[in-house]
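re: the backbone from monday

yeah here it is again, tokenized this time
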């Protein structure tokens, strides 16, 4: 038991996002330290050894930059903090690399990157490739340009968006407190632990505290905001004490001492619901071979099985997939209608030669595709 929290089982997961805040990576004086990162990295390694994938969203660049700046007292205000972030990014990624034999990949994002559909898909493709290569992505906000997000310092919400971006099953948020309480335990000694929560309500948001340290600018409120975003994508959120080495070690065994914030529906159900009901911008006709691959083997749609494309959809739009005049599936197009028509019937290795560029070998990736259970609608 830790601070009133009892151990419980974690949700089953294959891919996760681990968010680590500044308070866990800095000393009381604000310098970067790996004291807590050691145990968290061991959890990542144990998870990878078990065949799982972990993406890290890590704060701490500003704190790292402060330790490197020749004249840190000059680094005040927004521009000063942006300069510190630029100085500290390499040190932060270097810290994480010391704990892993696998290569660490730095990925800098802003919320604008994830709101723009084309950049969203580019980020999604890059992260998929990094995971396929066996790398460990370490993501941070691009603080040198993300003015609004740097003011918020809100990597909790960034982590939730990244969890949806990579189709994670669970979002782990390592904090400097053991989990969610009925009130802020730093100011209300009688606050009770909340080990399991079916839904985050406005009352929970109202009772959440602010930032827990000078280094961090997020707090329990932003963590609950992140959990709401993750739940909308069917992703559960787990809050735990990132300083408790025993708690972290038990995570690798599938056990949690902290708070489990549940999602009302599964990730797959949330994704399928969106794909089934989002407006379709066009249609892609496929041959019987592609039909068998999609329906029988759960494959992605490749250009070789495409017959034609109708409409003027863009990369990132939802499209209907037809075979023999019947709508059999819906998915997110990785290429525009013009591009699809140009590479139809081609081999995947010919995509770049035909277009002059490539967004990958799939027209619609299987993770972005839902097979309709009853293909009764006709063209």
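seq for it, each position gets an aa:
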């Amino acid at each position: 038991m830790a601070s009133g929290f009892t151990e419980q089982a974690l949700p089953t997961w294959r891919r996760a996002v681990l968010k680590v805040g500044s308070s866990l990576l800095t000393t009381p004086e604000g310098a970067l330290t790996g004291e807590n990162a050691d145990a968290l990295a061991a959890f990542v390694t144990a998870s990878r050894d078990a065949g799982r994938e972990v993406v890290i969203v890590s704060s701490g660049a500003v704190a790292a930059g402060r330790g490197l700046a020749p004249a840190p007292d000059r680094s005040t205000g927004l521009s000063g903090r942006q300069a510190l972030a630029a100085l500290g990014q390499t040190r932060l990624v270097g810290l994480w690399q010391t704990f892993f034999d696998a290569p660490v990949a730095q990925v800098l994002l802003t919320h604008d990157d994830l709101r723009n559909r084309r950049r969203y898909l580019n980020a999604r493709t890059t992260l998929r490739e990094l995971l396929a290569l066996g790398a460990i992505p370490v993501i941070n906000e691009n603080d040198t340009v993300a003015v609004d997000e740097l003011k918020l310092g809100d990597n909790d919400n960034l982590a939730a968006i990244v969890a949806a971006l990579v189709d994670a099953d669970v979002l782990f948020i390592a904090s400097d407190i053991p989990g969610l309480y009925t009130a802020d335990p730093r100011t209300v000694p009688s606050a009770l632990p909340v080990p399991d929560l079916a839904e985050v309500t406005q009352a929970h948001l109202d009772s959440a505290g602010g930032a827990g340290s000078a280094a961090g600018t997020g707090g329990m409120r932003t963590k609950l905001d992140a959990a709401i975003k993750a739940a909308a994508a069917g992703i559960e959120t787990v809050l735990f004490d990132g300083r408790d080495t025993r708690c972290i070690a038990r995570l690798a065994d599938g056990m949690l001492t902290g708070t489990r914030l549940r999602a009302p529906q599964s990730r797959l159900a949330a994704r399928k619901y969106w794909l089934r009901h989002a407006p379709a911008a066009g249609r892609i006709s496929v041959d019987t071979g592609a039909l068998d691959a999609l329906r029988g083997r759960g494959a992605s749609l490749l250009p070789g099985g495409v017959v034609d494309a109708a409409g003027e959809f863009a990369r990132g739009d939802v499209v209907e997939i037809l075979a023999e005049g019947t709508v059999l599936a819906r998915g997110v197009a990785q290429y525009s209608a013009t591009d699809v028509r140009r590479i139809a019937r081609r081999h995947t290795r010919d995509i770049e030669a035909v277009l002059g560029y490539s967004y990958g070998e799939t027209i619609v990736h299987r993770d972005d595709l839902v097979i309709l259970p009853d293909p009764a609608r006709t063209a």
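The chain has 14 helices and 15 strands. The first strand starts at residue 8 and ends at 9.
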